[in-house]
Amino acid sequence: MKPRVQLGSAVLAVFLAGCATAQTVPGQQAGEGSGVSSKEWDFSLSMFGYLVPNDLSYGQPTVKADHNWVHLEGRYNYENQKTGSLWAGYNFSAGHDLEFQVTPMFGVVFGAMTGVAPGYEASLAYKKIELSSEGEYVFDTGNSNNNFFYSWDELTFSPVQWCHFGLVAQRTKAYQTRLDVQRGVSLGFAYRKLDYTTYIFNAGWTDPTVVLALTYQF
pLDDT tens digit string along 165-177? Predict the structure, then answer.
C-alpha cells in the first residue's frame, strides 16, 4: 500500500535577537573558526512513509532551514495525522572530536490538533557513532487530556561513509499500537546529498511497523 500524503505546511519566518553561535545541522560537522556556514542557508527535505499494520499508511514530510544560529522547521502528520506544526529554534554546538549539538525550539500546532509545543533536537557524535534525539511536549489548547510528549531517539553506527545502522525508539500519537514506546532497528544508505533509511519497529512484540525515510540536503 502506498502512503497517502497530505501536504499543507508553510515556513514561518522568525527573527530573534542574540549572539551568533556556530551553525548546527543534524548530521553535519560544525564549521571551525567563526562557526559561520560557508552558505547563507542550509535546507533539508525529508519524507517518512509509515506502513502501519491493520491501519491507514501515511506520509510524514518535514522541511528544515538553518542560517547560523537560526533554525526554522515545518512538519506535517508528525504530532497527529492531518496536523501541521511550525517551529523556530536556536542552534548551539560544542566540541570537535566529541561533537555536541542542540537546538531548543518552540512550535505551534494546527489542524486536527491545535496547541503549542516546546521542543528540542540534539545529537552527540564521536567518530563513527552518533546518538540523536528529538522531542516535544504538546499542550493541546482544545483538550488538555490530549497533552502528550513525543520523542524520536536513534543510536547509529557508520562503518563506512555510505552505510549506517542502529537502534531507534519513538513515542507518538499519530498512529496506535499496543506499545507506548516503540522500539526497532534501522539500516540506511547515503549517496552525496541523499540518505535512504528503513526502520522496522515492534518486531517480536507485536505486528511490525515499517518506516521508509528519504532525506535530501541542499
Answer: 999 999 999 998 8
